[in-house]
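Following up on my earlier thread - several people asked me to post the actual chain instead of describing it. Fair enough. Here it is, all 205 residues.
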Amino acid sequence: MKVTNDYSEQDRILEVFKDLNRYSLEIGIFGSDDSFIAMIANVHEFGMTIKPKGKYLTIPTKEAGNRRARDIPNLFRPKGVNALAVEDKRKRGKNKDGFIVMFWLVKEVNIPERSFIRSTFDEKEDNWFEFFQNRLDDIILGKITAKNVWEQLGALITKDVQNKIRDIKTPGKSEMTLQRNPSKNNPLINTGRMLQSVTWKVVKR
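Reply from S.P.:
Thanks for posting it. Predicted structure:
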């Protein structure tokens, strides 16, 4: 009796694992897509203290809207108040102050850490590993490709990170921010632009 060894299946499985190792997964908000949102995301992820180049930072109130100080004529600093204001002509005689605050003057702004990427990885890493393991048989059987699995994993992680952004409530918005956006209590969602910017990329090693 002649015995032969067929290593073709073993070789095919080894090639599958080699194919898996040809790719890696990148998750986050990429500066090449939107550098401004990437910067905002980085500030929230790690926290930051912002200090002025001059003496004060000017923090706009609801009345200032999206305007800068140079866009508003006749600004003045009321006596004893760290603010820039305009005369309140409509309420003069009723408003004892006689002015409307357009900007608060502060020496620094402390933005607390609100991690949504690192914290999601800490909470969900085991789930993602299980998801990946459960698809190994499908790869070996040729039902899906290695790249398909990386794409599926990327979509899952992105969804989890976006859910984390939606769920974060603390540290909450500052009092000044709430005055500008009283109906929005999620500190990481204003326009939704950062939320939608979270994505993934499958790249070859």
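The mean pLDDT is 85. That should answer part of your original question.
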